[in-house]
Design goal:
Helix content: 40-55%
Bound molecules: guanosine-5'-triphosphate, magnesium ion
Order of helices and strands: HHHEHEHEHEHEHHEHEHHH
Strand order of the largest sheet: 3-2-4-1-5-6-7
Number of helices: 13
Strand content: 5-15%
Largest sheet: 7 strands, parallel
CATH topology of the largest domain: Rossmann fold
Radius of gyration: 22 Å
CATH superfamily of the largest domain: P-loop containing nucleotide triphosphate hydrolases
CATH class of the largest domain: Alpha Beta
Number of domains: 2
Length: 325
């Protein structure tokens, strides 16, 4: 990718040190993906070239179930294994300055200063879909920078969170006992997305009952090749975390063996290409859309015909280009 070395914009400095372990360059690149996702094409080209397909783990579940505490312990376990680990924590309500992000930082505070750990919080507020696009970019950047696994912590309450889950290879659903466990998981649509279920806060009464309820629900689910296990953890003390690491590994190996991992990643690549096409089309056709919408308002045409005409004009341009080559 020689041409990229001569890009002259404020990110050249970041570009030069990116994928070489410079955390500030990485942080800047991530911010750019969040702020101006339409302007990072070349950056992504290079990131994809460096990426090795790092394992992505989604940690989701209702608010307060212990996701951050558990993520912190998982992080520790992978670090002890010599892996460089990244965490992307998304929060639907508190962008940047909010209370729970601050809380997350405190809960993962034991890893501050560890050069093998990268923690990033992203906001979802007001950016449905936008988050989705940048989450994929951020994962690729982290992968290219040598982090793996990449842990995505997200509150499992809405569509944008489920979309983030689509970006991962293994989804861990974390619930806590005592809040009507079946309703908790079912209402948020978490039963369908979980590859591994965790009843955290197993030091509280009711954890075993909650685990049984979940097991029943899992057994009533669709009979796939992988049957999601239900584990008990006490994230506060780290109890059960090694078993969780094992369950994630088993899921990954099983998925890989069945070809399902490849299928999941392929679906992800397809979705990403579609999204890029959408962005490009909207970018390129912006002026034409403005023009045609006036015509639609005046009753001179309709949205379908307008869209078709705009689309046909692309095809003509492409044919012209080919003819000129
Ligand atoms: N007793 C007990 N408390 C726990 C356990 N795990 C987490 N907690 C506590 O539960 C509270 C919420 O934990 P978090 O890790 O912030 O939960 P979360 O799911 O990340 O919360 P949100 O990100 O706000 O949805 C904190 O006060 C934790 O200390 C556990 O295993 N046992
Ligand atoms: Mg949290």
């Amino acid at each position: 990718m020689e041409g990229n070395q001569s890009i002259s914009n404020p990110d050249t400095a970041a570009g030069a040190t990116l994928f070489g372990g410079d955390r500030r360059a990485l942080a800047r690149a991530i911010s750019r993906c969040e702020r101006e996702p339409d302007s990072v094409g070349q950056l992504l080209e290079r990131a994809y070239a460096h990426a090795t397909g790092a394992l992505r783990i989604g940690i989701t579940g209702p608010p307060g179930s212990g996701k951050s505490t558990l993520t912190d312990k998982l992080l520790g376990a992978y670090r002890r294994d010599g892996r460089r680990v990244a965490v992307v924590a998304t929060d639907p309500s508190s962008p940047y300055s909010g209370g729970s992000l601050l809380g997350d930082r405190v809960r993962m505070g034991s890893h501050t200063g560890d050069p093998g750990v990268f923690i990033r919080s992203m906001s979802t507020r007001g950016r449905l879909g936008g988050l989705n696009a940048s989450a994929e970019m951020v994962a690729v950047l982290l992968d290219a920078e040598g982090y793996g696994p990449i842990l995505f912590e997200t509150v499992g309450v809405g569509q944008s969170e489920v979309e983030v889950i689509d970006r991962t290879d293994t989804v861990v659903v974390v619930i806590a006992p005592g809040f009507g466990d079946d309703i908790q998981a079912e209402k948020a649509g978490l039963m369908e997305v979980g590859d591994v279920f965790v009843v955290n806060k197993a030091d509280h009464p009711g954890a075993i009952k909650a685990a049984r309820t979940l097991e029943n629900m899992v057994s009533m689910g669709p009979g796939h090749d992988w049957r999601p296990p239900v584990l008990l953890t006490v994230a506060k003390t780290g109890e059960g975390v090694d078993e969780l690491v094992d369950a994630i590994r088993s899921h990954n190996e099983s998925m890989a063996g069945l070809g399902a991992l490849r299928a999941r990643r392929r679906a992800r690549a397809e979705a990403e290409i579609s999204r890029m096409i959408e962005r490009l089309v909207v970018q390129v056709s912006g002026p034409a859309i403005a023009q045609y919408s006036e015509a639609v308002m005046a009753g001179a045409t309709d949205p379908w015909s307008a869209a078709k005409q705009i689309f046909d004009s692309f095809r003509i341009e492409d044919t012209d280009r080919e003819a000129n080559c």
